[in-house]
């Protein structure tokens, strides 16, 4: 007798709605399958604020929960997993099912390309032309991304700075004196 076939499909999701659409899309793709069990984590790795799971007809607690636990323990966030099962008559028992669904997700995670997302905040600065080079080097060392440079009487910068570097960067910049000025986040509109 043949064994059941398990297919794991994973994808990035930024919202609960995206996760639900992903699950529905995979379930539609494998509409003839016996089960399309799923789990998702929306948010940073390990965050349980926006999670979801379903056993999709398997015995309670044998698919969705083990899949979700694998995702939560993976160090990956903003991800959804669907494990599609084509049942072939061999029963695995509840323990066997739980181990198999968790293993499917863990195996898929090992080959999953991941991107580290760094929370950023936007800051604005002006610098004299003489201080602009120093500011550029300082911003680069802080991991900042220059979004815009405007050259007028001074050089104006609009940058994205890693959130965990903001306080240090502001402190260093304030110690440089008048050559570099930190502008308010939302500068007033010109009249």
Molecular structure report:
By secondary structure, this protein is an alpha+beta fold. It has helices at 16-29, 64-72, 93-110, 129-141, 166-174; strands at 5-12, 35-41, 51-54, 79-86, 120-127, 145-151, 155-162, 180-183. The strands form two sheets. The protein has a four-stranded antiparallel sheet, with helices on both faces. Strands 6-7-5-8 form a four-stranded antiparallel sheet. Strand 6 (145-151) and strand 7 (155-162) form a beta hairpin. It starts with a strand and ends in an 8-residue tail after the last strand.
Quick recap of the structure?
This protein is α+β, with helices and mostly antiparallel strands and 191 residues long. It is 33% helix and 28% strand. The chain starts with a strand and ends in an 8-residue tail after the last strand.
């Amino acid at each position: 007798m043949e064994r059941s076939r398990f297919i794991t499909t994973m994808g990035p999701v930024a919202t609960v709605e995206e996760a639900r659409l992903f699950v529905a899309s995979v379930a539609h793709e494998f509409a003839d399958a016996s089960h399309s069990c799923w789990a998702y984590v929306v948010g940073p790795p390990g965050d349980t604020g926006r999670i979801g799971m379903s056993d999709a007809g398997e015995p309670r607690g044998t698919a969705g929960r083990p899949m979700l636990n694998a995702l939560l323990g993976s160090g990956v966030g903003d991800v959804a997993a669907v494990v599609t099962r084509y049942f072939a008559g061999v029963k695995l028992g509840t323990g066997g099912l739980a181990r198999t669904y968790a293993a499917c997700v863990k195996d898929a995670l090992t080959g999953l390309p991941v991107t580290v997302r760094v929370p950023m905040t936007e800051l604005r600065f002006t610098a004299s032309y003489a201080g602009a080079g120093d500011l550029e080097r300082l911003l680069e060392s802080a991991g900042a991304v220059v979004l815009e440079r405007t050259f007028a009487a001074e050089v104006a910068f609009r940058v994205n700075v890693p959130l965990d570097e903001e306080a240090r960067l502001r402190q260093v910049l304030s110690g440089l004196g008048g050559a570099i000025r930190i502008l308010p986040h939302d500068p007033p509109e010109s009249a």
